[in-house]
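Protein modeling request. Please complete all fields; requests missing the sequence field cannot be processed.
Requester role: graduate student
Desired output: 3D structure, token encoding
Chains: 1
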Amino acid sequence: MSDYDFHRASLLRRTKNEGTLMKIALFGASGMIGSRVVAEAAARGIEVTAITRSGTEVAGASRSLTGDMADADLAARMAAEHDVIVSTTGPSRTGGDHQEWLDALDTLAEISGDTRLFIVGGAGSLFAGNTMLKDTEGFPDAYKAEAETGTKALELLRAKNPSPWTLISPAPEIGPGERTGKYSSELEVPAGDFISAEDFAVAMVDEIADPIHIDARFTVANR
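Delivered output (223 residues):
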């Protein structure tokens, strides 16, 4: 059995052998992506602990907590109590220091132990030929800083390797839309130009329920 198959079998056994519902802790649960992941996971019988900085009650969650992933004590408790820790958070878009988010991700990776870590990254680190999208001509300046930070997040996970982990990059464009339940996937190049936030959540919960991309990045798109 390969290391990949061993990891995947171990991850699948963790909940099946316990005979209990899968439990996930989700940081950033009230955002566009997070709220849809909560709804999708709950619809499939997965128990979700929704974690937000505001303590917002998130529809579909089993419980809602106030906190963020920079809190090492909270992260440790979530890792002990859940099968998967999910982060749909991102760096500040209002002028805040992006290093704070990277440091929080580092804390989460450090604390997660053998609990599966599932991170939403960016599309800027996907490749067009031999060039990352963030470095291609015409890449919007408004998204450059966030794309650079997203690339550093992927590099952090690959270097630190808090196995088992997964990072998912959206298509270059993501937004509210229709839940079709259909998507294409790739590893290092865009699978298409757009994905609805609803189908992005479908792809994430598919990966949560049946892990395929272990210690790796993948990306999904509708078209």
